[in-house]
From TrEMBL:
Subunit: Heterodimer of LeuC and LeuD.
Its job: Catalyzes the isomerization between 2-isopropylmalate and 3-isopropylmalate, via the formation of 2-isopropylmaleate.
Transmembrane parts of this sequence: none
Domain of life: Bacteria
A Pfam family that the UniProt record links to this protein: Aconitase_C
Protein name, UniProt field: 3-isopropylmalate dehydratase small subunit
The keyword Amino-acid biosynthesis appears for this protein: yes
Species per Swiss-Prot/TrEMBL record: Priestia endophytica DSM 13796
Domain Aconitase A/isopropylmalate dehydratase small subunit swivel: 1-121
PANTHER family in the cross-refs: 3-ISOPROPYLMALATE DEHYDRATASE SMALL SUBUNIT, 3-ISOPROPYLMALATE DEHYDRATASE SMALL SUBUNIT 2-RELATED-RELATED
Catalytic activity: (2R,3S)-3-isopropylmalate = (2S)-2-isopropylmalate
InterPro entries: 3-IsopropMal_deHydase_ssu, Aconitase/3IPM_dehydase_swvl, AconitaseA/IPMdHydase_ssu_swvl, IPMI_Swivel, LeuD
Keyword entries, A-Z: Amino-acid biosynthesis, Branched-chain amino acid biosynthesis, Leucine biosynthesis, Lyase
Length: 193
């Protein structure tokens, strides 16, 4: 994973509650074994019409949402099945941060394990970001070390994150990288057996 300390990016609003993992990455695209290439299928049933054309009514298809890297949505984001493909699809689509008032627990953990920073904010803070996301080129900065998200209009909010996962994200470590930090001790243990 890439280290994450701070990130400034354009903000996209997905003004929906209970966005489930089958909408984030529909089941028919789960046949791949790589972690990459899922972005083209993210939100497939919402992004495309039946004839394969882009759905102009879908929020993320709006021109001002092109090139966004921070996604803001409503309560219970990532509910549904535990498929790890959902954060893979979001990351491959370009999102490094997801903001919502609440997340499904397994989805939240899968984001952390794959390098996406999930930020739980209050409903009021989320509503502010959703409203501002309608403005072209609206950006926010996420400072993981300070655990804050802010814009250049005076908005600033603090968020909680487990210290273990904060360290993992800042260093760009996945669980295998973290285990390999103990390689000398593991080797010494194996040699003593």
């Amino acid at each position: 994973m890439n280290p994450f300390t701070t990130h400034e990016g354009k903000v996209a609003g997905l003004n929906r509650a209970n966005v489930d993992t089958d909408q984030i990455i529909p089941k028919q695209f789960l046949k791949r074994i790589e972690r990459s290439g899922f972005g083209q299928f993210a939100f497939f049933d919402w992004r495309y019409n039946r004839d394969g054309s882009l759905n102009p009514d879908f929020e993320l298809n709006q021109p001002h949402n092109e090139g966004t890297s921070i996604l803001v949505s409503h309560e219970n984001f990532g509910c549904g099945s535990s498929r790890e493909h959902a954060p893979w699809a979001l990351l491959d689509y370009g999102y490094k941060v997801v903001v919502a008032p609440s997340f499904a627990d397994i989805f939240y953990q899968n984001c952390l394990k794959n390098g996406i920073v999930p930020i739980p904010l209050t409903v009021e803070e989320t509503e502010y970001l959703l409203e501002e996301s309608n403005n072209a080129d609206y950006t926010c900065t996420v400072d993981l070390e300070q655990q804050t998200i802010y814009d250049n209009k005076g908005f600033k909010a603090a968020f909680d994150i487990d210290s273990h996962w904060k360290k993992m994200l800042i260093n760009g470590w996945d669980e295998i990288d973290h285990t390999l930090l103990l390689e000398e001790k593991i080797s010494a243990f194996e040699e003593s057996r």
